[in-house]
Each structure stands twice: as structure tokens, then as C-alpha cells.
Amino acid sequence: VKRYKAHGSQTGGQTSQGSWHYEESPGEWRAYEQDINVQLLEAWNARQTKVEFSSEGINYEVDFSTCMQTNGETGEQCRISFAAPHEGDALHRSPASGVWHFEESPGIWQALSKEIGDQLLAAWNRG
What predicted TM-score, i.e. pTM, was given to this entire model? Predict the structure, then answer.
């Protein structure tokens, strides 16, 4: 098990690389478009708790404190997570929820079971 850090998620440190993802459907994660990812990274690095953006004419709000995205028109919400790049790793952890995911195919992330997530967290904490 490799140690995988989501920079800034636990310590408030700056995040300069990596990508934000949203949960398109239960357990299925998609990476944000590059321009939106840049906006989210800049807001996170500026320690903003919320940021608004527009995609395909729809306004959204991301709340970093709850790791939730809200559709401004419908009020529908979905989870967000951050994946910090680390050569050879295909795992990431949601900063707020502690849910571990693996990249099933490029840009598609699947949640691991709580049991496996707990084992990964224990291994991560051991270094």
C-alpha cells in the first residue's frame, strides 16, 4: 500500500497540483474540466470555504467544508473529492469523508468498501 496524500486536505497546506472530482452517480467519480479544476484549486489555496462556477450555462456552488457541490438551479447536490498526483498511485481519498477510491478507468473513480478504506487509512497513518 502506498502512502497517498491529498495535499491540504488534513493540514490546511497549499494544494498546487492534483484534480478535483465530483460524484456523477453513486460511486462513480468524474474529473472536473481543466478550467473548473483551476478555479477550485485557486479557491482552495486561498482558503475559501465556498466557490461558485458556471458550466454549460448552469451555476454551481462548491462548499469545501462539506465537500459538496450544489446545482444553483435545481438545488441537487453531489459529493466532491480531491486527488493529489503521486506517480504509480491510482487511489485517492475524499478530504472530508475519508472515503477511499480507485481509478477504474481514466477519470472514472469507484469507492472502496469501508473495511478496505479502514485498512488503507491504518496503513497510511503508519507511513
Answer: 0.59
